[in-house]
Amino acid sequence: MQHNTSVLTVDALIRTAAVAAENTDYITAVEKYSLVLEQVPDHARAYGDRGLVKANMGDRQGAIADLRRAATLFLDQGLTANYEMVMKYLDGLEHR
Predict the structure, then answer these.
(1) What's the rounded Cα separation, in Å, for the pair 71 and 77?
(2) Which residue, 5, 24, 47, 62, could crosslink 70 as a Cys pair with Cβ 3.0–4.6 Å?
(3) For residue 78, how far is the Cα from the chain centroid?
(4) For residues 90 and 64, what is the distance between their CA atoms, to the nearest angstrom?
(5) What residues contact residue 83 under an 8 Å CB cut-off, 6+ apart?
(6) How crowded is residue 53: how many other Cβ atoms within 10 Å of its Cβ?
(7) Which Gene3D superfamilies does this UniProt record tie to the protein (predicted)?
(8) Domains by residue range for the chain, with CATH
(9) Residue 55, SS3?
């Protein structure tokens, strides 16, 4: 039963973070994605989304670190399309 509660909490945090990011409330978005990662340390999407938010905040190094972690996790989880998408973002950030 507790696992289901955690899943619901993670899903709610992801939704809240995404809405905050859409509204350019980047600090709240980073906080919510970080809470997800405290609960689920291998949550590739949270790393990727947090990396994109950090890029929008101007935190290039933080964005690169998060996107690299997301890429590794996506690849480890067999999510090749997600991996390739993150690598494109990374390429753009690393070659600025």
Answers:
(1) 10
(2) 47
(3) 17
(4) 6
(5) 71, 74, 75
(6) 26
(7) Tetratricopeptide repeat domain
(8) 2-94 (1.25.40.10)
(9) helix
If one counts every other C-beta atom within 10 angstroms of the C-beta of residue 70, the result is 28
Q: How far apart are CA 40 and CA 11, in angstroms?
A: 11
Whose tokens are 């690598």? That residue is: 87
Distance CA 44, CA 10 (A): 13
Token output for 35: 């809470």
Q: Which one has a higher pLDDT value, 3 or 10?
A: 10
Task: Tell me the two tokens of residue 68.
Answer: 């690299």
Write down the pTM of the prediction: 0.89
